[in-house]
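Final report, closing paragraph on structural work. Over the funding period we assembled a curated collection of sequence-structure pairs, and we close with a single example.
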Amino acid sequence: MNFLILFSVTILSPFCYARYTDDRSYGDSKPVNGLSAAAQSSTMSFDELDALFGTDRVQEGYDALKKRYDAGENSIDVLWRLAKFCNEIGNRVEKNKRKDIIIEGKKYAIEAWNTDSNNFLAARWAALMSGKVTEYLGTKEKIEEGKHCKEYLDRAISIQPKEDALLHLRGRWALSVANLSWFERKAAALLYSEPPTATVDEAIADFQAAHAINPDWIENTVYLGKALYEKGDKSAAKPYFEQALKLTASNDNEKELLAEAKTLCSKC
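Its predicted structure, as stored:
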């Protein structure tokens, strides 16, 4: 069982610890400068609700949407926003309170996906919440959720190929799968009817696509360098490490990545 736990963590770690996605808007709503008087009423417009993302009134936005959902309004526009509000609340509450709100958010995201899997925002939030919820699942459930998460990612990217956050996530998934050991692949064969397959080149392609969209994103730039380094192409990896080291870290996660980039760059 310990080996299976190691396997599940190896393949799902990009999703369990996706801090780079936590505080980004993902481009799914346009902030509104100020709220009209209608925002104080019992029914807010979607524009007014979207203006609450990233503010200290996130709970108010969630409560307003949850009231509509409980009254039977379960359109995709309600569902993905509920998932996003749950994600924001989950980023703000104490760790011991995070599980329930993330699981709830995933439920709304999957409802949106089941309503229309060809809707970009439904697919995007299904992928993001599916990845985030794995932190709270058991070993078997984590592995099963990883399969679904890849499906959501592929669908969302097929609809919107220039979504850098999702391209990066899929690159992380591919890199993890490509790096599985022989023993881990044997374990995967026991747990999957069709074991996951991916190559380092596939990961590099997704990281490069995300880099073309957002070249100043430290995490993606470092991972692009790491993927090239793991492929054995140190001369191609070095410029990305050097580029990342010119950027300023905004959180502890990025500081750790830059320290890793500095170490790897010295070996190129």
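The CA atoms of residues 215 and 221 lie 7 Å apart. The chain has two domains: 45-161, 164-267. We thank the funder for supporting this effort.
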